[in-house]
Amino acid sequence: MNGFVSLVCLLLFASSIAAGSDPAVIESVHANQDVALDLDPASAFWRVSHRVYMEKDGFGKVIPRYRTQVRTRWTKNNLYFLFICPYEELHLKPSPNTQKETNELWNWDVAEVFVGSDFIDIKRYKEFEISPQGEWVDLDIDLNKPHHEDGWTWNSGFEVKARIDEGTHTWYGAMRIPLAAIDTRPATAGNTLRVNLFRSQGPPSHQQAVTWQAPMKDTFHVPERFGLIRLVEAAKDKK
């Protein structure tokens, strides 16, 4: 990380502390090599990852029945995410197509990652979505434009995998995002990005937003509310 961006990150931390709260940080643990996408939380790849939870609605109210576990790891080439999503009723797109991008996937059940490396123009970031059926969409978001959803024509080359466990009312989704698509720096421990995590759950009549850092608005696109994700070399014991 260059000195200027490091200073900006430090100022972000300082402003958060001054406001009376610690900055929300996800630590992504390094893996020596890339692996096939894995949906088993107990696998060797995911066991060493830290866990964070999406457990609030869009305005910060805790919604324990949708408490969603998220894990993440990184290699020199990719950033991985695993979502473990309890559900009551899924809203799924008929005739899903997993071979090409599904525009407006956000109208259905999805898990989402918003991530950006620009600490100056925070309205610029990338959006990645996966459905329980393995559909996907990625977007190059620029909130300075009147129609940021037009960014869906961008292609990051990210990969996804998903499955639904009807017995436990849980669906699992995994992403592998090329780091070159979201950051110009070589991947190294200590690199920090801006991030937020979201889910949409259920049909339109009673759709539930599930968030990591609540946007405090009726939209997920509130970059001022993002937290941080930091690439770390090894997991630390957290008691």
Q: Please state the oligomeric state of the protein chains shown.
A: single chain
Largest sheet: 12 strands, mixed
Strands, total number: 12
Mean pLDDT over all positions: 91
Return the structural class: mainly beta
Outline? globular
Descriptive terms for the model:
239 residues; mainly beta; twelve-stranded mixed beta sheet; 12 strands; 8% helix; 35% strand
Topology:
Blueprint: H1 3-18, E1 25-30, H2 44-47, E2 51-54, E3 68-74, E4 78-86, E5 110-116, E6 124-130, E7 136-142, E8 159-165, E9 170-178, E10 192-201, E11 208-211, E12 227-232
Parallel strand pairs: 1-3, 1-12
Antiparallel strand pairs: 2-3, 3-4, 4-9, 5-6, 5-10, 6-7, 8-9, 10-11, 10-12
Overview of this structure, please?
The structure is a single chain. The chain is mainly beta. It has helices at 3-18, 44-47; strands spanning 25-30, 51-54, 68-74, 78-86, 110-116, 124-130, 136-142, 159-165, 170-178, 192-201, 208-211, 227-232. The radius of gyration is 17 Å and the shape is globular.
Summarize the structure.
The protein has 2 helices and 12 strands; from the N terminus they run αβαβββββββββββ.
